Amino acid sequence: MAILLTYETRAIVQGITGRVGSIQTRWMLEYGTKILAGVTPGRKGETVYGVPVFDDVKETVERFGVNATVIFAPPFAAKDAVFEAIDAGIKLVVVIPEHVPIADAMEMREVARKRGVVMLGPTTPGVISPGVGKLGIMPGNMFKPGKVGVISRSGTLSYEVSGYLNDEGFGESSVVGIGADPVTGVDIADILEMFDRDNDTEAVVIVGEIGGSREEDASAVIRRMRKPVIAFIAGRLAPPGKRMGHAGAIIQGETGSADSKLRVLEDAGAKIAFKLSEIPKILRKVL
Amino acid sequence: MAILLTYETRAIVQGITGRVGSIQTRWMLEYGTKILAGVTPGRKGETVYGVPVFDDVKETVERFGVNATVIFAPPFAAKDAVFEAIDAGIKLVVVIPEHVPIADAMEMREVARKRGVVMLGPTTPGVISPGVGKLGIMPGNMFKPGKVGVISRSGTLSYEVSGYLNDEGFGESSVVGIGADPVTGVDIADILEMFDRDNDTEAVVIVGEIGGSREEDASAVIRRMRKPVIAFIAGRLAPPGKRMGHAGAIIQGETGSADSKLRVLEDAGAKIAFKLSEIPKILRKVL
Amino acid sequence: MRLLEYQGKDFLKLIGIDVPEGVVISAPSEASGAFERIGKKVVLKAQVPIGGRGKAGGIKPADDPKTAQEVASELFGKEIRGFKVKKLLVEEALDIAREIYMGITIDTRSGKRTFMFCDAGGMDIEEIVKLFPERLVRIDKYPSEALREYEIRSALRGKGFERELLVKLSHIAASMFDAFVRYDLTILEINPLCLLKDGRIVAADAKVEVDDNALFRQEYFSKLEKVDVEDYMEREAKEIGVSYVVLDGDIGLISSGAGLGMYTVDLMADEGLRPANFLETGGGITAKLINDSIRLVLRRGNIKAILINLYGGVNSLIEAANGVKQARESFAKDVPIVVKAVGNQQEEAWEILSSAGVHLIKTFHTEKAIDLLKEILSQKERG
Amino acid sequence: MRLLEYQGKDFLKLIGIDVPEGVVISAPSEASGAFERIGKKVVLKAQVPIGGRGKAGGIKPADDPKTAQEVASELFGKEIRGFKVKKLLVEEALDIAREIYMGITIDTRSGKRTFMFCDAGGMDIEEIVKLFPERLVRIDKYPSEALREYEIRSALRGKGFERELLVKLSHIAASMFDAFVRYDLTILEINPLCLLKDGRIVAADAKVEVDDNALFRQEYFSKLEKVDVEDYMEREAKEIGVSYVVLDGDIGLISSGAGLGMYTVDLMADEGLRPANFLETGGGITAKLINDSIRLVLRRGNIKAILINLYGGVNSLIEAANGVKQARESFAKDVPIVVKAVGNQQEEAWEILSSAGVHLIKTFHTEKAIDLLKEILSQKERG
To answer: In the complex, which subunits touch B with 3 or more CB pairs below 8 angstroms?
Structure first.
């Protein structure tokens, strides 16, 4: 039926009373998402678009059996918000904020993975399961229910690729932003495996970009997947990024460039799209 | 045959080239202890009383199958020395230094217990199994092989009590200093259980002192022990120690005084000695 | 190392916790100026390193500069529970709406740091907690664990704190815990933390103790003006490198371990002997340290005899014996000295000690040493 | 934030790592004084925020004060790989016995910090490691793990370092790792670390980068004199709050996401269009931010058209539309602007944009926006 965000998902919004948090709560509610409560310390007793506000996450878990959270905290407070959610037992954590210190992102990743928590972000648009709900900031009108799973490092490009899928009548099972930061909670590989197990997903599109090695690292999973995978990499002609010193170069080795990613992905059996508009055509062939 | 230190014990000395470390190494060797190597960073290739010196603990474990260590490090370096030993896989760590910061002792205790390591100290004389060997600084001539296990918070008092045991023909199976610091690696209760399982120990003497609650905490073990336990508390008439604020008082509750300890221990079934000289007499009755 | 109130409050300011407006003065003449600077009713608080100073008359109000000066004169002349008043903290009088307790210490039992909170504060806190244990909020943390604000918020849920107050209290608690770890503290207690009628939250008192063994890495505290906490002899003992506590008897006592020392005090008391002090050398005996220790013990005056109880484990009995001999030959010529010394290298040590003219016990029996001491004293009395 | 060499070396000194004797100068006239202060042969090193300055003639020796002054004059007149030389580091010439590499960075793949050591250093380090991977010592650590000196000692066993040298290198490595964590660094590299013939161990170069997102909690760096690293327009972009990179084309590009921006650049290049810049707003669009961004893009001169590619997710399309309209009405009157805007509140935004006289794409197709842009440009060319 979808991954991560399903009809069983009962979510809260951390930072619900903020400017962005409150408007996005409204849009998530309008999209039909089950937002049962919000948390802003010191604001217990208020409501935001009818959603009751509490001082701490634990109380919302105890009262509503919450199992997911969308975090709109300022970057310096993101880590504490994530730890609070994890300590309260929440297993799906969507971290919207940009500009989170990378050291904090590393701590968040370490703890989330040790505790079996799926953390999207930092700098993620979140996850949408069209027709079911959305946990994040993506515009709901860009998505339609369907059978293609989308994994993206970029929020905006996931909207664009969904546009093409909709135009050609495919639609999406779930669209997952793993986060645009150098260090994020989950890897492309993790989400691929979820889509491979999902009965409602027939093919998966990876919207990658240059830098890092998340795409290359996904190749082992692609190899053993039963479902077709289509991969796209943004930044083929983009200016090269900053060099991370000799140390960065040594660690990175050959990975990181569009060429490397495309070669490794193709080698693992993914179909390559050079433009997003090619994706529906490839899908027709493989499905 | 003894606890902790047996014929299977193969030890190193960390800080072997120091003034105290080297002379104590000599005395441990003279007592017949198997000291296979020493460690002082930067001193690899030297020898101390015939014992080869290495730069790191791991190498000594790899070469000699070491399973115990005696640490003579300056107080500020004790934590690193303990972690090095634990990371190298050593399961018996004797921490001689005094004046170790309590925060470091807490870290050491936490890590040691999580990793299943028996850590004596900080501020311990160590452990001696008379006739087998000694890991620590106790004078070997104060002890004789025998059937009484001794657990002490104080080094000097463990020597004195052994004197009485020897005089009356009992001798000791092992004499264990848990350490005189407020926070130590093992508790009296832990050592009691080891003595209870040890075939060569017929009775156990606890040499406690006022302050803390290690004696009180041992009562649950004493209750279920098969072997007789004799307890002595030093400081019956000592001036009261510093109050650790209201917080300390709240935590401590009624524990800590000689009265509290003696009452709780007696209640758990231990025989109480008010002077060390009474211990052999009590032993005659219970054995 | 225990901080005086004003030093503790400076530290709280450093870690972002508000304290009342206050000025520290060292002479009565500064009191009216301090009053003017604060600009409202004040209390003058004697800065002594001991509790219970309120009941002992060490805290007095003043409503105008003139009274402030008079009160200051009175307080500076006082001795409070054995400590001369050398500094006063002149502080704004507080208009208190509510008092709270917050404290952190180390639970030696578990090796954890323990944070405690009570929705009431003040001198009766221990009683309150005993009578109403449910009012105490307690959170224990291993060294590897942080205490986060949200845990405190969760723990305070339903305790009657809401809105900003809840957020501020959680923040104060988290700041305290963070500082406790970072600065190697052994106690950090704010009792009471006062909610004032004007909305401020201030620490009306501050109890801060730092781990002496960690001062080497705590520049903030090692640089602080040393507090005149201990008896001057205890301070000297610190310089020598021994633990020292003054008692009220007439027998000097030196032992090479705390347990042995306590035991010796017990045995002496059982025999009707009264130690003048408790001096414990720890494991770093040198001839000089023993020599200095004997001098320190004798400085007390009125010492009838000295008992030295030693084991040679990590300590060198030879060094100790040489120290005794040096003292004997220079300043400790007449006082009877009983030495019990056994352990490593005991024979060499005995030889030196015999030549020093001390009474020697060559076995481990502290009881025998005390019997010998009694005998010497009664001989002395008989003349 | 990337530090210049002299700033990086100041930082190394702060964390207890030795660097060569050196003096920073800002004018040629200071060179001979600097030489005198150092008192031996020197090298003058241009302080520019880019690698490869040695090959570009940015490092020169001088054996006497007069030569130092001449060399300084020459260097201050230079531009090195696009950067004007504004500061020189005058440093003692080193008598090197051996060079070593030490570096720490973040392995984004695993989310660990990675320490690297090689028994050879210098510019060819990457080649050396490729050819002789066994010469690289690598230790990876999760955030919850410390790197301890003994681990480094164990890892360096058998690599040919002994006695004090082994201890010192381990200590330097541990200090680096500790600082890397404490100061929120993303790179800390010493290459080469030089063993000098006189026995000293000094960092001959220092590469230090701090996480910009952590500057709020890193006072040491946030207080540092800002380095003239970026193009002045990139600096202005930072103040506006957007990411900005100068490219060499003639089409202004503004996008509301990095991925979308890169994709747009790819598509433009496929169609033979050349972007003048890469400007990405992130998630904080306001009317002012868009207005400022358009101004920044136009300041480049020679801009034939602007393409604005937006999604309304966390960003407000209405704010964006108002920003475009304001720019249109004040300074951006004539340049053709193509706006693609879809997402939340798209209808309201389209209304504003239509009234602003821009070319509007109301679907998600970036390709269509580029087609439209091409058409506009060719119409313009045709006149």
So the answer is: C, D
Distances (CA, A) of D198 to C197, D17, D51, D161: 68, 17, 28, 17
- Which of C99, C108, C274, C346 to mutate: most B Cβ within 10 Å? C108
Distance from CA of C381 to the nearest CA of B (A): 26
Q: Hey, are the CB atoms on C104 and B235 less than 8 Å from each other?
A: no
Give dist(CA C228, CA C90) in Å, integer: 19
- As given in the structure block, the two tokens for residue B245 are 């604020």
- Choosing from B19, B114, B242, B246, the catalytic residue is B246
Is C26 within a domain?
yes
ipTM: 0.91
Residues C4-35 pLDDT 10s = 999 999 999 999 999 999 999 999 999 999 99
Residue B150: CB partners within 8 Å, gap ≥ 6? Answer: B158, B161, B162, B165, B172, B174, B175, B176, B204, B205, B207
C5: in domain: no
Chain A CB contacts of D116 under 8 Å are 247, 250
| Domain C-terminal end among C37, C59, C92 | C92
Question: HSE of A138 in the Cβ direction (CA atoms, 13 Å)?
Answer: 33
D283-324 residue pLDDT tens: 889 999 999 999 999 988 889 999 999 999 888 999 999 999
B116 and B172 within one domain = no
Size of the A and D interface in Cβ pairs below 8 Å = 188
B151 shares its domain with B263: yes
Taking only the tens place, the pLDDT of each residue in A77-93 is 999 999 999 999 999 99
- Residue of chain A with shortest Cα separation from D122: A246
Instruction: Give the nearest partner residue to A102 out of D189, D213, D344, using CB atoms.
Output: D213
For B154-170, what is the mean pLDDT?
94
Say what the pLDDT of residue C340 is. Answer: 97
In a domain, residue D45? The reply is yes
Q: What is the CATH number of the domain that holds A98?
A: 3.40.50.720
B184 CA to chain C: closest CA distance, Å? 8
Question: Based on the structure, what is the number of domains in chain C?
Answer: 3
Residue A119 near residue A110 (C-beta atoms within 8 A): no
B154: Cβ contacts below 8 Å, ≥ 6 apart:
B177, B180, B207, B209, B234, C257, C258, C259, C260
Residue B191 falls inside a structural domain? yes
Which H or E element spans position D374? helix D366-382
Residue C126 and residue B250: Cβ atoms within 8 Å?
Answer: yes
Determine which of B252-261, C102-111, D334-343 has the lowest per-residue pLDDT on average. Answer: B252-261
* Secondary structure element (H or E) that encloses residue D290, with its range: helix D287-299
> D357 — contact with chain A (CB < 8 Å)?
no
Active-site pick, A19, A246, A275, A285 = A246
> What residues of chain C score a pLDDT lower than 70?
226-233
- Verify whether residue B99 is a known catalytic residue: no
Mean pLDDT of chain B: 94
Q: Which residues of B touch D154 (CB under 8 A)?
A: 56, 58-59
Residue D7 lies in a domain: no
Does the beta-carbon distance from C154 to A56 stay under 8 Å? yes
Cis peptide before D49 (omega within 30 of 0): no
Gap from A97 CA to chain C (nearest CA, Å): 19
Give dist(CA C249, CA C263) in Å, integer: 16
Task: Identify the domain containing residue C286 by its residue range.
Answer: 232-376
CA distance C43 to C22: 9
Which residue of A55, A59, A83, A86 is the best one to mutate when testing the C interface, meaning the one whose CB has the most C CBs within 10 A? A55
CATH of the domain at B246: 3.40.50.261
Domain limit, last residue, from D188, D222, D256:
D222
Whether residue D103 and residue A246 make contact (CB cut-off 8 A), yes or no, is: yes
**CATH value at residue D59:** 3.30.1490.20
Residue range of the domain that includes B188: 143-286
